[in-house]
Amino acid sequence: MATKIRLQRHGRKGYAFYKIVVADSRAPRDGKFIERIGSYNPNTNPATIDLNFERALYWIGVGAQPTDTARNILSREGVLMMKHLLGGVKKGAFDQAAAERKFDEWLKGKKDAINSIKAKAKEASAAENKAKLEAEKAVNKAKAEAVAEKKAAEAKAKAEAEAAAAATEAEEAAVEEAPAVEAPAEEAPAAESAE
Question: Which of 31, 88, 98, 151 could cross-link 93 (Cys pair, CB 3.0–4.6 Å)?
Fold first, then answer.
């Protein structure tokens, strides 16, 4: 039986995550498997990989063939590097302690690279949020200026209307008072003549 290390798709449409499994090569993609050795979520930045390192190393050691994507995942996690170093120990190129030291150095470099990627993503996100905030402040300031101009224009129009109304009332009052004073004087002689 040929065994494969491959991915089983799970999740909803457009948001897939995968289980890393060891399965018979003749089994369907999402079908029966021998052992689940981890999970892979490409929806995060950087992608989240949870892998049982010892079991993956065991299956690689007994001849399980990873698919292309599974090979990339195992390489990223260091399973293939450890297999290579164990092969060197078996051939007598170096001892187990030297292999462990080389693997730890490689793993430290890999973690530093991942941490720098996370830091850059965080900085980019902070810069993007700051730019959005500045743009929003500029839009709000423009809106506030437009509202202030509109209120000032309305207040000016209202003041002009009140002034015009006051002037009109003053003219009307002046017109009404003037004829009221003169009219009784004209009526008085007419009343005398009627007598």
Answer: 88
Question: What's the CATH code, domain 3-77?
Answer: 3.30.1320.10
Does the model's pTM come out above 0.85? no
SS (H, E, C) the chain: CCEEEEEEEEEECCEEEEEEEEEECCCCCCCCCCEEEEEEECCCCCCEEEECHHHHHHHHHCCCEECHHHHHHHHHHCHHHHHHHHHHHHHCCCCHHHHHHHHHHHHHHHHHHHHHHHHHHHHHHHHHHHHHHHHHHHHHHHHHHHHHHHHHHHHHHHHHHHHHHHHHHHHHHHHHHHHHHHHHHHHHHHHHHHC
Angle at 178 between CA 175 and CA 183, to 5 degrees: 120
Helix axes 96-194, 79-91, angle to 10 degrees: 170
Q: Are 68 and 4 in contact (CB under 8 A)?
A: no
Domain residue spans in the chain? Answer: 3-77
- Using CA atoms, how far apart are residues 5 and 9, in angstroms rounded to an integer? 13
CA proximity to 20, closest of 70, 76, 75, 80: 70
- Give residue for tokens 């309305």: 154
